[in-house]
Amino acid sequence: MLDEVVAAVERGYALHDAPSSADTERSRALLTEAQVHALKLIEGCEEELGVTESPTLQALLWCLRGKAMTLGEEGRGSLEAEALLADAVKLHPSLIDAWNCLGECFWHRNELETARCTFVCALEHERSAGTLQLLSMLLRTMARLGHEHPAALLAESVQLAKESVRRDAAAAKCWLGLGCAHLVVYLDVSQTAEELHLAHKALSQA
């Protein structure tokens, strides 16, 4: 049953980035439906498992519930989601998905430096392609919002994006992130043909 719960939560969480998110009314309906379904499955799973003495399993359940809470009105910035995800990483620090979702909670509340620290903490446990891609994207956002040393932030963003591609060359998101990183460097820093070529190459691969 746990596999079914994970699949339902992942499908719901992915709706945040789906094309339908541009249609607010339709998006809200889909998110609400997904949340109700996910929470029902989580509650059923918790009842079936009872009180668990496994920190790994308890952390996973908190993580899944936290992700499900982002499907509510507060979205990915949900305070309830943050609390659940924070408990999950405290109990099981190697749960990278919880770290990544926690970072996104802070990001969506515009707490960018806290989000950055959260992704860095995740990388200390595992240099996963997903975390690298998220941190790379966050650094580009920070650079374009006028944070200190934007050129250095963008350079680091490119390096992180390159590493994400090396770790998961089959992931379109990683190639897209690399292409965007090169494109932002082209637009904001270098404006060289080489940078534009690298952006085009990565985006084509995506």
Task: Explain what you see.
The protein is an all-alpha fold and 206 residues long. The chain is 78% helix and 0% strand. It is built from 10 helices and no strands. Helix 1 runs antiparallel to helix 2 and helix 2 packs antiparallel against helix 3. The protein is globular, with a radius of gyration of 18 Å. It starts with a helix and ends with a helix. The model has no long low-confidence stretch (mean pLDDT 94).
Briefly note the structural class of the backbone: mainly alpha
Give me the strand/helix succession: HHHHHHHHHH
Number of helices in the DSSP assignment: 10
Outline, from the CA principal axes? globular
Task: Please provide the count of β strands.
Answer: 0
The main sheet comes to: none
Q: Quote the distance from N terminus to C terminus.
A: 34 Å
**Which residues sit in consecutive blocks of at least 5 with pLDDT less than 50?**
none
Estimated share of beta-strand residues: under 5%
Which whole number gives the mean pLDDT? 94
Based on CA atoms alone, the radius of gyration comes out at: 18 Å
In helices, the fraction of residues equals over 70%
Key features?
206 residues; mainly alpha
Task: Briefly summarize what is shown.
By secondary structure, the protein is mainly alpha-helical. It has helices spanning 2-14, 24-49, 55-69, 79-91, 96-108, 112-125, 129-144, 150-167, 172-190, 193-205. It starts with a helix and ends with a helix.
